[in-house]
């Protein structure tokens, strides 16, 4: 069984994340979505809220592709999380060249820590390339329309945090 790990903060999960998850399901038998605790980023949603949102958004994807999807919170090194969940592949989404520069450094460090775990990059589909959780939160905070970037359930959750 091939296990992949798709890590992120998912604060909140966007259509860009869902696109990568859907496509990753075609590459692995088991996909672990690692929800990073990352206290330094000061997430808007609690860990429990982010895990619940990811689980809810992935239910249909699991059924559609027959891939086992597990949501796994983590606070340790990414490479250690990959080992913990038995992943042989780390899946990362790319939106732009700036993402690649950061990810390139991360791959180099992760390979030094454990060269048996590969990293695969998936380019976001064109309609999702501009979507970033940080920008979606800013648009919601300023009372803008976030419907092109998130599902209706996530839109509702954001508008609860930022009442209109």
Written account of the structure:
By secondary structure, the protein is of the alpha/beta class. The chain has a single domain (3-126), classed as 3-Layer(aba) Sandwich (Rossmann fold). 45% of the residues lie in helices and 20% in strands. It is built from six helices and five strands, in the order E-H-E-H-E-H-E-H-E-H-H. It has helices spanning 15-24, 47-65, 78-85, 97-113, 133-141, 152-161, and strands at 3-8, 30-36, 68-74, 89-94, 118-123. A five-stranded parallel β-sheet has the order 3-2-1-4-5, with helices on both faces. The chain is globular, with a radius of gyration of 15 Å. It starts with a strand and ends with a helix. The model has no long low-confidence stretch (mean pLDDT 93).
Q: Tell me about the biggest sheet?
A: 5 strands, parallel
CATH class category label = Alpha Beta
DSSP strand tally: 5
Write the element-wise H/E pattern from the N-terminal end onward: EHEHEHEHEHH
Helix content: 40-55%
End-to-end separation in angstroms reads 46 Å
How many structural domains? 1
Q: Quick check: average pLDDT?
A: 93
Strand order of the largest sheet: 3-2-1-4-5
How does the overall form come out from the CA principal axes? globular
Strand content: 15-25%
Do you know the CATH architecture?
3-Layer(aba) Sandwich
In DSSP terms (H or I, runs of 4 or more residues), the helix count works out at 6
User: Could you please say which CATH topology applies here?
Assistant: Rossmann fold
Q: Low-confidence stretches at least 5 residues in length (pLDDT < 50)?
A: none
Q: Over the alpha carbons, how many angstroms does the gyration radius reach?
A: 15 Å
CATH H-level homologous superfamily name: HUPs
Summing up helix and strand content along with how strands pair, one would put the structural category as alpha/beta
């Amino acid at each position: 069984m091939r296990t992949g790990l798709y890590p992120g903060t998912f604060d909140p999960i966007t259509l860009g994340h869902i696109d990568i998850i859907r496509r990753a399901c075609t590459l692995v038998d088991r996909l672990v979505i690692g929800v990073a605790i990352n206290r330094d980023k000061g997430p808007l949603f609690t860990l429990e809220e982010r895990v619940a949102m990811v689980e809810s958004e992935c239910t249909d994807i699991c059924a559609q592709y027959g891939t086992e999807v597990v949501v796994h919170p983590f606070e340790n090194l990414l490479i250690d999380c990959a080992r913990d969940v038995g992943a042989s592949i780390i899946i990362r989404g790319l939106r732009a060249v700036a993402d690649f520069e950061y990810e390139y450094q991360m791959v180099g460090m992760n390979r030094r820590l454990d060269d048996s775990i590969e990293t695969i990059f998936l380019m976001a589909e064109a309609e999702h390339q501009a979507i970033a959780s940080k920008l979606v939160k800013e648009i919601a905070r300023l009372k803008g329309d976030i419907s092109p970037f998130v599902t209706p359930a996530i839109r509702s959750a954001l508008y609860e945090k930022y009442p209109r």
